[in-house]
Amino acid sequence: MIESTANKQVKNLIQLMKKSRTRREEGLFVVEGIRMFREVPTERLVRTYVSEGFLEKEENRAVLKDIPYEVMTDKVFTTVSDTQTPQGVLCVVRQKEYTLDEMLKKEHPHLMILENLQDPGNLGTIFRTAEGAGVDGIIMSADTVDIYNPKTVRSTMGSLYRMPFSYEKDLDEVLCRIKERQVAVYAAHLKGQQDYYQEDYTKGCAFLIGNEGNGLTDHLAEQADTYVRIPMEGQVESLNAAVAAAILMYEVKRQRG
Fold first, then answer.
1. In the chain, what's the furthest Cα-to-Cα distance?
2. What is the DSSP letter of 181?
3. Residue 153 contacts by C-beta under 8 Å, 6 or more apart in sequence?
4. What domains can be seen in the chain, in order of their start residue?
């Protein structure tokens, strides 16, 4: 049993929780909670930790099945946990890399391209919604918040394990490759001449989503083939990035039946 926060494993877990650099260097990240633990692909599960209190319930012990685990005192577990009310189980998971080619392998791919999103909850919500809407991949600028940030991981509700994604240093090059595959690029923009639902998304399509506070940079927006607008009433000028993304993703799903 791990009884001290000075334990090497505990120190490493805290580093993985707090530092994207550590996660990147080790190719690992941490997930918390019963649901996220249950959905971890077996081949990517590295280590599992539980609290003493977790083991007191028979239904919790059943969740562990035949998976090896380390036990921590409740106090140590609380120190490691990133949540206010820990469920008592967390695990270290191996990261997975995807390529742009994998995301483009379908005849008519549906992609999301995110520029400099900074809110972990927004990014996690986009991942979760994207899985539900049947998106084929999410491409992010290098300055977008880390998908393996514990808050982002929780917000994905498990979609992180299944949704293909990549971070790209050069979105210009990515857009060139996408357009070569006859994928139309759209930007939700105040200068849009048509409402988003008036376009045809039954062929390959990609949507540009910008930073929560500043929107898309002019440079990236200008590379869209078409500007579309999301109609709004009142004095609202724009929507939350995750909400706007959801509207566009589900319009594609609706049109494709």
1. 63
2. T
3. 29, 30, 31, 32, 36, 124, 147, 160
4. 8-94 (3.30.1330.30), 100-256 (3.40.1280.10)
Phi-psi region for residue 88, left (φ > 0), alpha (ψ -120 to 50) or beta? left
210, burial (CB in 10 Å: exposed 0-12, middle 13-18, buried 19+): buried
DSSP conformational letter for 211: B
Tell me the whole-structure pTM to 2 decimals. 0.93
Q: How many helices (H) and strands (E) does the chain have?
A: 12, 11
DSSP summary character for residue 143: T
pLDDT per position as a tens digit, 41-92: 999 999 999 999 999 999 999 999 889 999 999 999 999 999 889 999 999 9
Yes or no: say if 101 and 80 are a contact pair by the CB < 8 Å rule. Answer: no
CA distance linking residue 166 with residue 148, whole number of Å: 12
pLDDT in tens, 149-165: 999 999 999 999 999 99
96 close to 127: Cβ distance less than 8 angstroms? no
